[in-house]
Amino acid sequence: MGCVGALRADCFYKTMEAEKRPGFWQDVYRTEHGGIRLYVKVQLETQASGDLVVVIQFKRL
Length: 61
Prior knowledge:
Blueprint: H1 2-5, E1 12-17, E2 25-33, E3 36-47, E4 50-60
Antiparallel strand pairs: 1-2, 2-3, 3-4
């Protein structure tokens, strides 16, 4: 999923609190990859080994 690593600030749509994990925040992006419009929701989790980006949703718009 190279498009997740290529997300840009200008693709940012909103930040929202996780429905099933209150206190955790998720960022939503609307982007285009390979000619397909996409909705991508990610959550940043800090771990002892470093930050981890978890893809929560990835779908066509």
